[in-house]
Amino acid sequence: MAPTRRAATTATMTTSALLAIAAAAHGQAALNGVNIVVEDTTLELGESTTIRLEAYFDPALYAMSGIETSLFSSEGRTGLSDWRLLAPMDGPGTSVGRPGADGVDGILAGQIHGLAGIYGDTTNPMPFWEATYTAPVAGAEPIFVDLATETTRFAVYLWRDSAQSESRLGDFAEGTARIHIVPAPAGALVLVPAVLAMPAWRRRRER
Question: Of all residues in the chain, what percent carry a pLDDT higher than 70?
Answer without folding.
Answer: 75
